[in-house]
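Sorry to interrupt, but I need a hand with the structure work. I would like you to pick a protein and set down its sequence and fold. Please put the record directly below this note.
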Amino acid sequence: TVITPETEVWLAGYGSKRAPEGKLHDIWMKALALEDNNGNRAVLITSDFQGVPKSMSDRVFAQIKNKYGLERKQIMFTFSHNHCGPRLGDDLYDYYPTTPQQDQLVAEYTDRMVVKTVEMIGQALKNLSPARLQMGTGHTTFAVNRRNNREADIPNLLKSGKALVGPVDHDVPVMTVTRPDGTLDAVLFGYACHPTTLSFTKVCGDYPGFAQLKLEQNHPGVTAMFVNTCGGDQNPLPRRTVELCEKYGHMLAIAVEEVLQKPLQPISDGLTTAFDYVDLPYLKTVTRADLEADLKSSSAIKKRWAERLLKKLDAGETFPSSYPYPLHAWRLGSEILMIGMGAETVVDYALKFKREFGPGTWVCGYADDMISYIPSRRVWLEGGYEG
């Protein structure tokens, strides 16, 4: 499903006004519907959105349950975190110097995306047909731990051959969907890296968009789907040119192609899905005094946040002491454990869970809700942007 806006919805990310000026290519939302031999079902949504807020995904989940009978645990709504895609709902609302007209355009676009998502899932369920799942793992190296390597130093470090520092996850997990006659139908793949190669005002899917386009060009009729694994503290470096963006997309596509050239591991029958919210308590619930002090902040984002929350207090609202954090666990056969985590998980989560649960573990950040950064204990103690 094409999700390229037809109106002047600002591009999401970077905390500034970014009105779109054309497009490099369309952006997409895709659905993979799965059903095992016992009739257990699940639907994975991938998309070129920067972030899907809870206010939107909750609407989608409710309508899907009402229309198709799928429970919350059976649907995972992922987004690539692409910064050259449109704003949605109240996602990172205070980041933008928005206007009433822009708010209206975003609300209308979000409403259309809810409708499109529900229709797309209905079509995916309708199109269920026999298939074989297989898996493999590739490797590519353009993701850099941005906490431990200064961006300005990267070109010289790479030229000198010096090793970059900090944890990374350069695995490229791949799952294929093949029809009984051997025809490749879909390829799902992941990588842990921010899609922030570009910061301009043309709509595109950044490096995941170029990777998907390249794979679909190489395999006509195949649907390529991307999930951002745990890239909260990972950047594509160096960056900021279309040439580099396309290069990284093609590097990722090559990593997938190398997996497709080798014997793949079959995934056995069986599908189990689980979901729950984990209540994450706040260290402190913000007070009126805190917000009034933040009105004097030099940060425009913090001032907008304080103004919005003060209006809530004035309206009689109270603030919760915790946040409901979404967490999925899907088991595909005995070979794949797919963990879905909300928002911007740092790379430590992928590395930890793969060590703990072994090969075949996919850890998908950026699922269901764009809340904030989700630091590990290490990043929390170190502090800084993601902490």
